[in-house]
Amino acid sequence: MKNTNSYLEGHILYGDDFDALQVAGWCEDEREGYASLGAADAEAYNYQYHAMNIFHGYRHLPAIQFDQVLGFGSAYGHEFLPIAARVGALTIVDPSDAFTTSEVYGIPVTYLKPTLDGALHLPDGAFDLTTCLGVLHHIPNVSFVLGELVRTMRPGGYMLLREPIVSMGDWRKPRKGLTKHERGIPRGVLLDMVSTLGLEVVRESLCGFPLTTRLFRSCVSGTYNSAIATRIDAMLCALFAWNVNYHPRSTLQRLRPTSVFLILRKSLAQPAD
Questions:
Q1: CA distance 9 to 201
Q2: N or C end of the chain: which has fewer CB within 10 A?
Q3: Does the pLDDT value for residue 154 go beyond 50?
Q4: Buried b (16+ CB within 10 A) or exposed e, 211-240
Q5: Looking at residue 38, what is its pLDDT?
Q6: What domains does the chain contain, in order, with CATH numbers?
Q7: Using an 8 Å Cβ cutoff, are 120 and 152 in contact?
Q8: What is the mean pLDDT of residues 136-146?
Q9: Averaged pLDDT, 194-223
Q10: 91-133, pLDDT tens digit by residue?
Q11: How far apart are alpha carbons 258 and 164 in whole angstroms?
């Protein structure tokens, strides 16, 4: 394993080079991580990103029916509300036992647990749309898991991918409000993975400016459930795009977009395995 500083510099993704034993240990730690932060209480749970997902993602998709949709790490499936009328059937991959139901917004749903190594027991080319919104940064072997998601996409299918592109602090120490291992994925590393897997970037946008949640902290439904807050956030991220960095070393470096939202499309020519 490389020196930790080489990971904090953002040139290499921490965890992506772990062996099978290390991957298993990480995944066991994270299995109930999101649920343990409060998401396991279905009655009190409030999904926080509807406006963000619409603004950066759903509104840019073609106005078509998505017969088979895969939600990777989608918990209760709340992220599908904006396109529920256009989804035929839904498969949700989630390791936690906290999120199980037979339907989401009237859509029949099947829950599937991932294997410890991240392999998906799903057929090639099965899904018209895949969402992976703020999930990969919880996983050690990101490049392998992303490859599995691409394998299960049909040629011409779409993926919505949103991930933090900052370190989220030094993961060697406990961090308030974060699970044990989660860390952001450096933007350059993520885009290299996408390119290697043969995905076309239909649209890339930056989001998650640090001051946005402070400006809109009185928003009862959540900052990124507000269309106005989301638009202002996008403007701030565009203005400070020049300052994108992984592990900030100064106050100025903290004034930067913290996440990227990608709309990806799989080539009509299925790549060889």
A1: 25
A2: C
A3: yes
A4: ebeeebeeeeebbbbbeebbebbbebbeeb
A5: 45
A6: 4-266 (3.40.50.150)
A7: yes
A8: 94
A9: 93
A10: 999 887 777 777 889 999 999 988 888 899 999 999 999 999 9
A11: 6
pLDDT digits (tens, 9 = 90+) for 48-95: 999 999 999 999 999 999 999 999 999 889 999 999 999 999 999 988
> Which tokens hold the place of 139?
């996983």
Among residues 197, 181, 180, 127, the alpha carbon closest in space to that of 155 is found at 127
Torsional class of 128: left (φ above 0), alpha (ψ -120 to 50), beta (otherwise) = alpha
Cα separations in angstroms, 86 against 8, 62, 112, 133, 166: 41, 11, 22, 19, 33
Distance CA 78, CA 122 (A): 22
How far lies 134's CA from each of 9, 18, 45, 161, 269, in Å? 21, 21, 17, 8, 28
Residue 255 has what DSSP assignment?
A: S
109: left (phi over 0), alpha (psi -120 to 50) or beta: beta
Pairwise pLDDT comparison (157 vs 39), residue with the higher score = 157
Locate 72 and state its tokens: 């990777």
